[in-house]
Specification:
This protein has 117 residues and is mainly β.
Length: 117
């Protein structure tokens, strides 16, 4: 069973930075893609950034130029570097991994990011 564990969330002032980590219980080589989603209070969970097994990345427009997704296959970990944080980035951030065809989704339990103004 795949387990994904997020860490790195916390409280930060606007303009600050945080780095989220997602540690997988096994090799991430088998994942077609990995990504970060976020869910703000009272809103739906939405995709923030995704990285393919080949390292191709994609971002939602609101975080382009501020967030960077990366993966360390040797350490079975994915990261989200978040710079120039804004209050509207406040949310629970979830790690997601997809494997197989059709893809099966795996989720972490989330880590809370709070950006104060």
């Amino acid at each position: 069973q795949v387990q994904l564990v997020e860490s790195g969330g916390g409280l930060v002032q606007a303009g600050g930075s945080l780095r989220l980590s997602c540690a997988a219980s096994g090799s991430i080589f088998s994942f077609n893609a990995m990504g970060w989603y976020r869910q703000a209070p009272g809103k739906q969970r939405v995709l923030v950034a995704v990285i393919s097994s080949g390292g191709i990345t994609n971002y939602v427009d609101s975080v382009k130029g501020r967030f960077t997704i990366s993966r360390d296959n040797a350490n079975n970990t994915m990261y989200l570097q978040m710079n120039s944080l804004k209050p509207e980035d406040t949310a629970v951030y979830y790690c997601n991994a997809k494997r197989g065809i059709p893809p099966m989704n795996y989720w972490g339990k989330g880590t809370l990011v709070t950006v104060s103004s």
